[in-house]
Amino acid sequence: MEYSQLVKSLEEVVNIPVYAVLGSLKQNVVFLSTLQGESNISVISKEVIRLTNKPVAIPALPKKELDFLVYAFDTQKGKEIHSLNVVTLKGEEYEAVSPQMRVISLAYDQKRIAFVGSSLQETALYVVEHGKLSKLATLPPFSFVSDIQGDLILGSGWLKGNPKSHELFIANLSGELKVFTPKQGSNNYAVSLSGEYAHFVSDCENLGESYWVYALDTKSMNYQRVEFSQKDVYQYNPVEISGFESEQRLLVAKKEGESKIFVDGRALDTPKGVISGATKIGDKVYFSLSSLTTPSKIYSHDGQKLEVVLENKNVELGSTYYTKIKSDIDVPTWVIQPKVEKNPRVAVVYVHGGPWGEVDNRWNLLIAPLLLLGYHVVAPNFRGSTGYGSRFTFMDVGDAGGGDLRDIVAAREYASKIANVVGIMGYSYGGYMTLLALGKEPEKWSFGIAGAAVTDWLEMYSLSDSSFKGFIEVLFSGKNEELMRERSPISYAQNVRAPLCIIHSQNDTRTPLAPVLKYVQKLQQHEKSFELHVIPNLGHAIYTMRDAVDIILPALLFLKKLYG
């Protein structure tokens, strides 16, 4: 493939829009999309109408009965200093407040906006009313708000100092905060407020293994399971709950990297893949779904018939299968084979970010271009991944770069059985794992591609705001400087053997550029083979498709120079 064709192919696949249903406003489906080349919120009425004027960083889930919604956008070229805008169904838009801090999460009702924000000094819960910003309470870093209704605000986070449990909080407008957990050590995630009840997802009955949905009486603080009249959901036996609308009895449940929709416990017949959002309007359920080889579409289902509401481009990228690779544990893994492979056969071990994330069977902006150009992809869900119960998710707490690295190496051994050449690639925590693998297991890899990588945990900590200081402290079970130093790629840069492509954004405030430049200097001192691409005026998050091309193109050009 010529260079011009490579660029053209990348632009084509990156410009395939992504859809994620958020909910509804006044009987209109509301969804997040990349139509028109950037992240935006649109509605489906008689036609698709874009509502937001600016690239959307964080959307609040819409309130069905209202005719407006709220979202956060980045004001400083990727530095994730956010402002909040209100936009109506008529397309009228105005700024609600500009808090000049990182917004972690947000919710709204008829009168107010609630959000969790992080500055250099602290993470706190804020409320906005009539354009006035008020701080209600200081929160532990990485806390999240889910809903506001009247004078109650619902959220969750690491609230009791245990890095392996999440608790709920209910706050009032005076800043009084109640912390609730149904069982010590359980993981609980707030969903929504409905009347006197707060709905939440918890693993309290099957600790560490699987979640269910519950209703908490906000006055008595007693809780009960939410039950359904139909039995399909019980037979499905989900591991995770990824969506719930209480009044509509709508549940999105998930296990082993794929999801299903249930209405009052009855399963709807849907294509294979991952449902990224769903809402019920009248007798119809609207949902967005994609797979690793099939782009997003929005569907409707009336309980009998499935229809496509919003189409997408049809592409043939290849085939997938799910397996479990043997490390010292079983590692759930997706293997994606291209329709037309390269010669020699090249495999990329793709390492997802987070680490509390996963590769599941949904469209992936970083994997799709690799398939299009003929590369096999092996995508392990290493210990620390979500989707397999909280015990699996928190296996890397206090051990970042330890057991998860062993799982990545096991994926490499698996990939070597299906390809002649095996390299490693990742973004964010995946970029970190890429550099660590190249330095600690240098003989295993033929190449490496690291995007938005952590190179030095100690320096990253010193440069972080409250939320990301908190993230590092959770990941390392405290400010464990010795372990942070031992698990930093800069400690092993001298061992790197494989050609390396490093891609980093100039304004990244999650994984700052400065430590990466020091890592590169060490590579240079030891005469290693590497490329460094610094993307100007861009941060960690990708809001536009042009941003995506800027990030992905250097990786594809690097691979072409190596393997044609």
How would you summarize what this structure contains?
This protein is α+β, with helices and mostly antiparallel strands. Helix content is 19%, strand content 39%. The chain starts with a helix and ends with a helix.
Classified in CATH, the superfamily of the domain at 318-563 is Alpha/Beta hydrolase fold, catalytic domain
Side by side, the strands of the main sheet go 28-29-31-30-32-33-34-35
Oligomer: single chain
Under CATH at level 1, the class of the domain at 318-563 stands as Alpha Beta
What structural class do the secondary elements suggest? alpha+beta
Helical segment count: 11
CATH architecture of the domain at 318-563: 3-Layer(aba) Sandwich
State the separation between the terminal residues, measured CA to CA. Answer: 7 Å
Uncertain stretches: none
Tally of strands: 35
Q: Please give the largest β-sheet.
A: 8 strands, mixed
**Helicity level, as a percent range?**
10-25%
Mind telling me the C-alpha Rg? Answer: 23 Å
Q: How would the global form be characterised?
A: globular
Which percent band covers the strand fraction?
35-45%
Instruction: Give average pLDDT, whole number.
Output: 96
CATH topology of the domain at 318-563: Rossmann fold
Polypeptide structure, described:
- The protein is of the alpha+beta class and 564 residues long.
- The chain has a domain at 318-563: Alpha/Beta hydrolase fold, catalytic domain (Rossmann fold).
- The protein contains 11 helices and 35 strands.
- The termini are close together.
